[in-house]
Design brief:
Elements: H1 3-8, H2 11-20, H3 25-43, H4 51-63
C-alpha cells in the first residue's frame, strides 16, 4: 500500500489495515510523518512533532501486536 493511501485512510481504516497485517504501526507512523514533512511548512499546523517518540511507540506496538492492546496495535476494537 502506498504511504499516501495509508495517510489518508483515516483511523478506522488504519486500524483495520494493521489488524489484517496489511501494514504495520510503523508504516502508519512513517506515512503520517512523511505527510507532516511534506505539508507542514505551508500549513504550520504542528508546533512540535515527536518523530522519534512516535517511531519508538510504533515499534513497541508492532512487537506487542495482537496482545489485547487495541485496534491500532493489531488487536480487536474495544
Amino acid at each position: 500500500m502506498e504511504p499516501i493511501d495509508i495517510a489518508y485512510a483515516g483511523a478506522a481504516e488504519q486500524a483495520r489495515l494493521i489488524r489484517s497485517g496489511e501494514v504495520s504501526s510503523s508504516e502508519v507512523v512513517e506515512a503520517s510523518l512523511a505527510r507532516i514533512d511534506a505539508h507542514d511548512g505551508l500549513l504550520n499546523a504542528f508546533r512540535v512533532v515527536l518523530s522519534e517518540q512516535a517511531r519508538a511507540e510504533a515499534k513497541a506496538a508492532d512487537s506487542a501486536r495482537g496482545e489485547g492492546n487495541g485496534p491500532l496495535h493489531g488487536g480487536e476494537a474495544e
